Alpha-hydroxy-acid oxidizing protein
Amino acid sequence: MAQPLEKPDLPARFASFADFREGARRRIPHFAFEYLDGGIGRDIGLARNYASIDRVLLTPRTVDEGVAVDASVEILGERSAYPFGVAPVGMGGLFHPESAPALAKKAAALGIPFCLSFVASHSVETIRSAAGKAPWHQFYWPRPEDVQTDILARMKALGVSVLMPTLDIPGHQWRERTIRAGVAAKPSPLVLARDLALRPRWALDTLKAGEPGLPNISTYSGGGAAEAEMWLLQNCLRPVGPEEIRRLRDKWDGKLVVKGVMAAEDAEDFAKVGVDGIVVSNHGGRQLDAAPGTAELLPPIAAAVKGKVAILADGGVTDGLDILKLIRLGADFVMVGRLPYYACAALGARGAASLDLLALQVKTTMIQLGVRNFDELMKLKVEMG
């Protein structure tokens, strides 16, 4: 017998990705929304992420009553209650001061991973304190060797189990929407004055919390957000290939996952140098308008390295069904970025309940598909419509 759904603690008008996005657009300043929402160029690559997942068709099966759905998975030596985690998103303090801490805390309660961005508005130490456990940590591998050594020592001391060097920003990019909106680590006084007037609730929250910074970088750059941004550009946004990852592998005895893999040949190269996992990602459509969508990238990469390394994927996820589609295409695990941060931008810390909504959608969709676990999901017929 079907049971009533246990609804997440969200206002009734926030029932979907589109609702969270629109709520964020209405609540936060234009420059902050453009940073979170935008891609690059004409946003064709961004749209392709969504469109490629929309094309995935799954044929449901029937199943006898009486066997519970098991949505848990083993990923990188950890048991996750659901097949998704929170992806790294930079400058979360622009959206709401408590976005990253609230999401990390909710993720811990839900039993799923939370990954903190190197350019987050909160330090790894702060997130560890908020969640009661260390996050996974995404970062751009810096050039100075003394900084490399310090990062690895700090992460090990904090109990970080997964490091995620990101490879798909080999240099600074020209993102038209963010340029037009005046986005920077520290927006201009004119932009701030305008948006303080237009978004008073956001302004009050931000004034109470203090100006968001980049503490994971400021540790090494000194100064404030502007100095941290310049240090990042000069020391971290550079090409990083298999040989440098091999050297990092030799220095780090925890799990190592490289983010931003789009070619099967690269996936094979990184598997050979000993990484534990890869993230199939085009950086949320923010770096190259001609990049294929995540759903298009996954099948050839899975054919090349499935079973050799863990395959994670991100980009274009709007609900639990999208998560299951990416898994059926070959991902072992899915990272979700924009959706929970839209929700926190719209609702503050309460928006972390968007993770409960995703968990609910995963389970209800598995029931609808007639699968009780992921072995059964992988047997479903899949095609591109």
User: Anything to note?
Assistant: The longest helix spans residues 354-369. The two ends are 33 Å apart (CA to CA).
